[in-house]
Amino acid sequence: MPHIPIDSGEPGIRGLFAFRPETAGPLNALAEVLLRGDNTLTRGERELIAAYVSGLNECRYCTASHAAFAAAQLPGGMDLVDRVRAGTAGADLSRKLQALLAIAAAVQRGGREVSADLVAAARAEGATDREVHDTVLIAAAFCMFNRYVDGLATHAPDDPAVYATAAERVVTYGYGHPAPQQAGQAG
Prior knowledge:
By secondary structure, the protein is mainly α. The chain has nine helices and no strands. Helix 3 (about 45-55) runs parallel beside helix 6 (about 95-110), helix 3 packs across helix 8 (about 130-150) and helix 6 packs across helix 8 (about 130-150). The two termini are about 25 Å apart.
């Protein structure tokens, strides 16, 4: 049960955004830039970083959400996402992305855990300064998002279909944009 009354009926961060819409705008804008904006990392790769960090933080809602968002945008789908989270993706993941995930894991443990060696390893695999920067920022932002969601004890649905539906909406419309209402539905 959430620590505060969330009357929207929405799970996770969506319920919190409905509770406090004035903070939803900037947080959705940050997610939009980090996960969907122009970048040399694909949207699926960036969502995978978000899902990976959320899994390390044991945030059930964010892990399930961003795993679904990543799976919808990666050729390997949920099987790849699950193997990345389990540490068994191996050759199915580029060495550059493996190095960036190591940086993301370091950020999750603490910002000062990101070492020059981790950055050098990512650069050696072709990561750009912007990719290193964005990986650190995605990981840091998701530590915040995870703590926001779990700190207020929001609801995380058990049904994977809920997350798959959300993935369709996010992939199509982005963050902060509700899917258009079906004809005949009240707004």
